[in-house]
Amino acid sequence: MTRLSQVKVTCGLCGHRSRQTRLLSTCVFGSPDLDLRPPPRQRSILRLSVQACPSCGYVAPAIKRADAVARETVETDAYQALRVGPLGETLAGRFLRAALIARHRDDLGQAGEMTLYAAWTADDDGDDDQARAWRSDAADLIGRALETMDPDAEVTGHTATRLVDVLRRAGRFDETKSLADHLLTRDLDPVLTAVLTFERHKAEAGDTACYTVDQVFAGPHGSVMPEANEGAAQAASPP
Ligand SMILES: [Zn+2]
């Protein structure tokens, strides 16, 4: 069950007070997609990932906190163009504004995350071309973030495996296979190895479809790691 509350929040940039919805608790049932999108019943809470100030347009996970980078970014033409452009106050528009602030902060991992969230909203709208374009942008950002991460850290293997899925779903099959092959030479968690083998097979087939973590172990590749099924969702659960 998802529990929400309404709170009054003062914007850290302009001081405007607005009503925002806060997530108190939720339960996750089912298997996430391979890019770690939550299962369908939990997707509605995605809109709570960011708050938006209705006065100055500042978007952040918590708008009560703001810094000089946020202020400078909100004042840029690019940010204001996103705000008053066709995307306006859509969820995709808010995620892309949050991504822009993260990019100005040089937090490319967060920028990639927010851009991927925008792609998910395009999925929901049935806009495949836009979803593919934003996925491709997200892949570029996540790829650049990976370059700054410790190659031996566990989180790096998880992030790189997620990137393989984002690349495949963006239709960048050569890069998908190349990165998967590179990762498969390393001593990874068996669940990640199974996911990468699955991803490589789908990329070889030119398949951009969405698959869940459970499907990696339930399909023709189920024999790869059937005993790892129980740990799959846990290993791939969103941070
Ligand atoms: Zn504001």
Task: Walk me through what this model shows.
With 239 residues, the chain is mainly alpha-helical. The chain folds into 2 domains: 1-142, no CATH class; 149-239, no CATH class. Helices cover 51% and strands 9% of the residues. It has 10 helices and 4 strands, in the order ββββαααααααααα. It has a two-stranded antiparallel ribbon with strand order 1-2. The protein has a two-stranded antiparallel sheet with strand order 3-4. A hairpin with a 6-residue loop joins strand 1 (3-10) and strand 2 (17-25). Helix 3 (91-104) runs antiparallel to helix 4 and helix 6 (154-169) runs antiparallel to helix 7. The radius of gyration is 19 Å and the shape is globular. The two termini are 20 Å apart. Mean pLDDT is 90; it is low at 221-239.
